[in-house]
Design brief:
Structural class: mainly alpha
Shape: elongated
Largest sheet: none
Strand content: under 5%
Number of helices: 19
Number of strands: 0
Length: 376
């Protein structure tokens, strides 16, 4: 029926019929998504052909050839938005991010019997098993010999930085003396506990661009989903995947808070927030952040929603494995008790440093106020 309607209006609208009989016929005749280039050609041809193109389109609609027209056009618009937003960013990021390699990994898994949506679920587990966990383990093992001396060393570094503001040469000399005194670089050793967190940002950024532009390199990605999310390049219209990602995030926050509370109670360590707020307020902020993930996840394609769900679950699993006494004994990492005592010492040092800075500021303000009074 579609072919007969297209041939009927060939004389009136040859270009429109040519496009539909080419790439457009197959896509419109099935529920498979259409690429953005085909959508643009269809729209431009309707305008250029004038009455002929509009008549053909109206006759197609009367014959009910396109059953899901609204969802089809909305899908095209979503793909077009993603392609336009990712085109410039993709060119900028492809210079230093291995976007194509991640896509090759996904295609490799697909060629060896795994579905595309299954490959999207496996990516975070591979990243944590091959990159994040080995890095965190290495940093913890290399930092272990210096944990007992690190709070005192960091305290001296803070005092040195406070006393030598504006005097770079003297600051470097005193920092070198502190490094020789303790046998290690205190700021560098202190930063190792954040390396595992920092390395995850380029990983997630790479996977974001790789998944959101996957359909440009591998068109089968559009049909690589399952059930209600058959097209991995579009967002989930039922909100099931975004809601699942948000629920997993809330569960992850709850489990991590409970784990930290259990360990701090077990080792009799009173932990506090690293910011100038209470720990309860920090936990509430974490829950609010988890809830705010819902609209963000809905704006992402279904393929990246699957990645987010797997990433949240793998992060919670990674946290519990790294806090396991058995895993720490096998990898020669510092024990939980030793590490929690170190964190308690660091918190005490931070409080002392803040009090010293506050007292110094008050003293300077009093001196400046006395000078102003003398001048008056």
């Amino acid at each position: 029926m579609f072919v007969s309607h297209a041939l009927k209006h060939t004389s009136q609208c040859p270009n429109f019929s040519r496009i539909l009989m080419g790439r457009g016929v197959r896509a419109l005749g099935t529920n498979s998504p259409v690429d953005v280039k085909t959508a643009n050609e269809l729209k431009e041809t309707v305008v250029s052909e004038g009455a002929g193109g509009q008549e053909l389109l109206s006759s197609m609609m009367d014959a009910k050839i396109v059953s899901n027209t609204s969802s089809w056009w909305s899908g095209l618009e979503q793909q077009q938005v993603w392609s336009e937003s990712m085109s410039s960013a993709d060119a900028w990021c492809s210079g230093f991010l291995p976007i194509e390699k991640v896509q090759h990994v996904v295609e490799f898994l697909h060629n060896h019997g795994m579905s595309y949506w299954g490959a999207a679920l496996c990516l975070p587990f591979f990243a944590k098993a091959l990159i994040t966990m080995p890095l965190i383990t290495h940093c913890a093992r290399s930092q272990a010999p210096y944990l007992s001396m690190l709070p005192a060393a960091i305290k001296e570094v803070r005092q040195c930085q406070s006393n030598n503001r504006g005097n770079t040469e003297k600051l470097l000399q005193e920092m070198s003396a502190i490094k020789k005194k303790y046998g290690f670089n205190p700021p560098r050793e202190m930063s190792k506990q954040f390396w595992g967190m920092f390395v995850q940002f380029p990983i997630h950024l790479t996977c974001l661009y790789a998944i959101c532009t996957m359909h440009n390199t591998y068109p089968e990605w559009k049909r690589g989903g399952a059930y209600w999310f058959s097209d991995l390049s579009l967002s989930d219209p039922t909100w099931v995947l975004p809601a699942t990602a948000t629920g997993c995030m809330l569960l992850c926050v709850f489990l991590n808070i409970r784990l930290q509370t259990r360990l701090s109670t077990k080792y009799d360590v009173a932990l506090s927030s690293p910011f100038k707020i209470s720990l309860q307020t920090m936990n509430r902020i974490s829950y609010v952040f988890a809830l705010s993930l819902l609209p963000v996840a809905h704006a992402m394609p279904a393929g990246f929603n699957l990645y987010m769900i797997a990433n949240i679950l793998s992060f919670s699993l990674q946290t519990h494995i790294l806090r396991s006494d058995l895993f720490r004994n096998l990898t020669n990492m510092p024990s939980n008790k030793y590490e929690f005592k170190f964190r308690e010492q660091m918190q005490l040092m931070e409080k002392e440093t803040r009090s010293l800075v506050t007292n110094k500021t008050i003293t300077q303000e009093k001196k400046s106020a006395g000078k102003r009074e003398k001048l008056l």
